[in-house]
Amino acid sequence: MLKFNNYWSGNGNYKGQAKFLDNLVPVSGPCLLQNFQLRQPVELYRMMTNLYYEVYRNGGLNLSRRGKSNLGAMASYVEVSMQGICNLNRDWLQPGDGDDLAVWLCETNWKDVCPNGHHMRRLERVYDIVILNSFVMFQEELDSQNPTK
User: Between 92 and 48, where is the model more confident?
Assistant: First the structure.
């Protein structure tokens, strides 16, 4: 049993925001919102969710096969996005959270990771950051398109 809040057990820190974003993600494939500014945060959330579920569902097995799946490319996309988030919101991170994210995701032997260890806690922090940032970016863009009178 995990001894910290996590989405896999249904008690993640931003589960309301995650549920909102889930409703924007298609059952399969990339986000199809026409507006790039709205699509971008949803797409970041979708990719990080795929990586998160890969770790919990398959023990990260497909992440270790970077060339044989698109998860390695997703990990790289999330890493680049996280660098931008980190530059804007340094107070959201602990040291190392956004560093070498793709390498860390793809090269960690997830099957041997302690369920309550630092790797799983870092995964939750990174997922928290992506969820909260994606939600805020989406809402801010939506608000800018529909200003109140």
Answer: 48
